[in-house]
Amino acid sequence: MDLFKAWISSAANYEQFRRLIPDHTDFPDTYDEWLRLANEQVTHMIKQGYVVTKVTIDPAEFTQYCHRTGSDYDPFSLDDLANFKGSTGNPNPSGRVI
Prior knowledge:
The protein has helices at residues 11-20, 31-47, 59-69, 75-88, and strands spanning 2-7, 51-56, 96-97. By secondary structure, it is of the alpha+beta class. The chain has a three-stranded mixed β-sheet, sandwiched between helices. The N and C termini lie close together (11 Å).
């Protein structure tokens, strides 16, 4: 089974997401900590037998998605966008992790 993981590609983008989604436990203080946790999640999913694709999402794209769909600015909407991008095309050509 394929899974799509929302992926934040830089510390600068991470800081923008933290401003968009403040005070949420899914967003630790630093990008390095988020990256470590996100990689652990991907490793766990792969060990469970999933094929994981990291779907790069930038803050502007997320803002447009939430505005267009009426979604809240939260991690669930970030996951929804990753699933939408992943299921409708080529989310990130180099992002597939097997």
